[in-house]
Structure formats: C-alpha cells, structure tokens
Amino acid sequence: MVDAQTRARMLAEALPYIREFADKVMVVKLGGHAMLDPELERCFAEDVVLLKAVGINPVVVHGGGPQIEGLLAKLGVECRFVQGMRVTDAQTLDVVEMVLGGTVNGRIVTRINTAGGIAIGLSGRDGNLIQARPYRLPVASEERTPELIDLGHVGEVEDVNADLLLHLCARRMVPVIAPLGVDAAGQAYNINADLVAGAVASRLRAEKLILLTDVAGVMDQDGKLLGRLTSQSARVMTESGVIRGGMIPKVKCALDAMAAGVNKAHIIDGRIPHALLLEIFTDAGVGTEIVGE
After folding, report:
1. pLDDT higher than 70, residue 116
2. Which residues fall within 8 angstroms of residue 208, CB to CB, at 6 or more apart?
3. Whole-model pTM?
4. pLDDT tens profile 20-78
5. CA 179 to CA 64: how far, in whole Å?
6. Which letter, b or e, does each residue of 64-78 get, where b requires 16 or more Cβ atoms within 10 Å of its Cβ?
7. Angstrom distance (rounded) from CA 208 to CA 130
8. Which of 39, 47, 54, 93 could, after both became Cys, cross-link 276 (CB 3.0–4.6 A)?
9. Which of 3.90.215.10, 3.60.10.10, 3.40.1160.10, 3.40.630.30 is the CATH number of 16-291?
C-alpha cells in the first residue's frame, strides 16, 4: 500500500508537467554510460516511450565514441586527435558510418520499439536531414589570424531538415538520429553529437534540449551540484574557470541553443535509471536546468 501511495503521489506531481509540455518537442542527446549499460538503455527507452505516450515529442540524437574506438582498434586503424577532436580520414569515416548509422542507431531503435514505441533510425544522409560543411579547427598561432587545421571528414551543421522531423513526430514516430552530416555533393561528415543535438533543438524551436552525461550536472566552485542556473551565470562561470574541461562544450551547446529559441536546456546524470523522467516530471530533477534571464 505504501508503494502504491508513493507511485500515486509521483503521478500527481507529474501531472502539471504533462499538461505544460503536451505537443512540445524535446531533443535528447544520448551518450556515455546510458549507451553502454543494458539496464540504463532499457530505462532510457521506456522513458522515451512514456514521453510519447503522454503527448510529448522526443527526438533522440546519439553519440558512439567508445563503440567507434573499439571497432577501429579491432581493425588496427590508428586514431589521431587534435585538441580532443578525432581526425577523420576516408577509412575512419567508413567505420564511423558503420558504427553510428548502423550498429548503435539500430540498437537504440530496437530498444525503443521493444519498449512499445515506434522509433525510426536516421542519419544525416536520409532526406538531407543534417546538411553539413567541413569544420576547420582554429588553433592559436604567432600570426594575428589563427591557423585553421583540417580534420578531414569532420563537419559542422549548416542546416537541419526540420520538416522531415516534424512530419515523423506528427505520425507518432520517434526520430533517432546518428550524428552524420552530408554536403551538397553527397560527401558525408562526422559531427559531434552535442552539436547536432543543439542544432536540431534550435531548428525545431524545442521546448527543451537535454544532454545526458556521466556526471551529476554543473557544479559550483565548491563542487556542489547546481540544480538551476541562468544563462548569464553559466557564461560568467565559464569565463571564470568554474565550469571547465568537458563541461565547457556542453554548456556552450546549451547556451547557443537557447539563444536560437530553445526554451530551456538540461545537463543531467545519465547514470541514474529513468533520469529523463526524473528531470522532466519531478520538482527536484537529477541534474542542472539552464534557464534564460
């Protein structure tokens, strides 16, 4: 009886959020442990199906770095990185497309469908979904103008076919996007999944951009989790070095998306089962919510 009452209270707590977010789009970037742990995968799939069942339109963008590195190692292909970014030659791109557009994407789609949803896997090639251009990494040099490093087939998002995604959402489907882009000549590019998620959220004017990570969220200078953060505070904390390391690009991605029209961004702990539902439908949440001024 106690468990039943607890569940009833949780449902009652979720009701205002269900009303508020009905028919809204939420873009979720899936990565880290949530992609490597079968139990977390199952929980994530159930969360996505429940969001769709209550009238919310989730759009999933996934990463796959560990899986790519694992296959490259098996094939004996050496990885080279510049400032943490993978140099992607033609051989590496073949592996990236195989892993992201095939193995990883198919696994997530199957998980969601098994949980009762209707997921459809997409890469940037499909319907020109992610239109891309080559990314040149700026590196400081002695000259006034930074040197631009060619990373091979690494791209950045130029545009997103929002109509295709909205068409799928309206037909009760859950788009699952592999972060691959394509240019006008048909050349594919490997793109950072956070950047793709941010661009998709911006183009769809999503209610929320949610980034699942392997940390609790954004921490203050004393290492305490910040449950709520304004965009201005996030900028100040980044400039002062409180936000540092791998959290910097995630916060920047969130701020860029909000500047382009996304209502709120969330950086949450994907190591917690059902983290997505806990962040969206409870007052406490399980990560950091970034809001406007």
Report:
1. yes
2. 21, 24, 26, 27, 201, 262, 263, 264, 265, 266, 280
3. 0.92
4. 999 999 999 998 878 889 999 999 999 999 999 999 999 999 999 889 888 888 988 88
5. 9
6. bbebbeebbeeeeee
7. 20
8. 47
9. 3.40.1160.10
